[in-house]
Design brief:
There is one protein chain. The protein is an all-alpha fold. Helix content is about 70%, strand content about 0%. It is built from four helices and no strands. Helix 1 packs across helix 2. The relative contact order is 0.05.
Length: about 90
C-alpha cells in the first residue's frame, strides 16, 4: 500500500513561494517539501550524531570530552545562532 496524501494549512504567500521554488527546480511542491524536511535534523538526530562524533573522537584519539565542555560548546553554538538571526 502506498503513502497517503495529506493536507497542510499554510498561508497563500507560503504556498505561492513553494510553487515558485518547486517550479524553478523542476520538481513538485511535495518533492520540494520532502527535500527540505529531510535536510533538517530533529533534536534527537542531532544528539545521536553528536554522540557518534564524540565516540569517534574517543576511539581515534583517546580523548574523552567532558559534559562541561559539551555544555560550553552548546552554549557557544547557540549564541552564534542567535547572533546570526539578529543580523
Amino acid at each position: 500500500m502506498g503513502e497517503q496524501d495529506t493536507s497542510i494549512k499554510t498561508t497563500k504567500d507560503v504556498r505561492d513561494r513553494l510553487r515558485i521554488l518547486a517550479s524553478e527546480r523542476g520538481t513538485t511542491m511535495n518533492e520540494l517539501l520532502t527535500e527540505l524536511v529531510t535536510r533538517e535534523l530533529t533534536e534527537e538526530e542531532k544528539e545521536l550524531r553528536a554522540q557518534q562524533a564524540l565516540d569517534e573522537v574517543r576511539q581515534t584519539t583517546g580523548v574523552v570530552v567532558s559534559d562541561d565542555a559539551r555544555a560550553r560548546a552548546r552554549g557557544f553554538l547557540k549564541s552564534l545562532g542567535q547572533e546570526h538571526r539578529a543580523a
